[in-house]
Amino acid sequence: MTTVEKPGAAPPRRRVGGTERVIGVVPGPVRTVVLEVGRICQLLGQVLASAIRHPRGYWKDTLDEMYALLRLCFWPATFAMAGFGFLITVMGVGLLGLLGAANRMGAFWVMADIREIAAFMVGMVVAGVIGTSITSDLGARRAREELDALKVLGMDVLRMLVIPRVIATAVMCALLNCLTSFVGVLLGLVAVSALADTTSGAYIDSMSHNLYAADVWGAELKTLLTGLFIGVICSYKGLNAGGGPEGVGRAVNQAVVICFAMVWVFNFFFNAIAQGLNPNLLMLR
Q1: Looking only at Cα atoms, what is the longest distance across the chain?
Q2: pLDDT in tens, 13-47
Q3: Residue 76 is inside which H or E element, if any?
């Protein structure tokens, strides 16, 4: 038997579930942030699932993206590490010299360079140079409706435009970390020889006694994950940009700010976990 609704009658009320009631209580700004993080994590899962299940068809584009990233980020990362590292080196030499422990400069530089500064500088440079490029390109394609056209033609936008850039960003971040770490160690050696009341041999000896395998692999893993997150965040912002050119510019700005904050927060928690799992990292020999 069908029921006929009277004209002008109110529509039937929809039952609200417990989850919806909880979400409704959450303030709007907090709800927006949580939903944004959830969508970014969803895109990360889609990228990893597609790349692992079908590891073919995107490596040529990935190599092209890696070359472009290296060409654009090599000198900025080198000069950024040289300038920032020189400042930290001068401060470290002055402080350890006052304490009469200039021969411990190598141990200080292991903590400052390999564990902290190198990965931080790589994340900042890659987010500022490559992250903006990824977001602006995908956002412009969204504004011109190219992404919708590719979907209509049966092409997978994720595998064509997102996966190669995410993989290239992650791998090149790890490789650039090797570059910045080497620049930092070399800069520390030069600064110790010129400014500190010690020898380069004492610097190398102190560094070799305080550098563990966990430092090296931890720094590489940290920068690899940092690059992965940068690629996913910037791709998400580009894919969901709206509002024409103004919306693309807003998406680029938001992507860079989120990536910078992510680098700080992720670096802190990763180092805390690494030092908790490897107590030897807290010791200075």
Answers
A1: 97
A2: 656 555 566 666 767 777 788 888 899 999 999 99
A3: helix 59-98
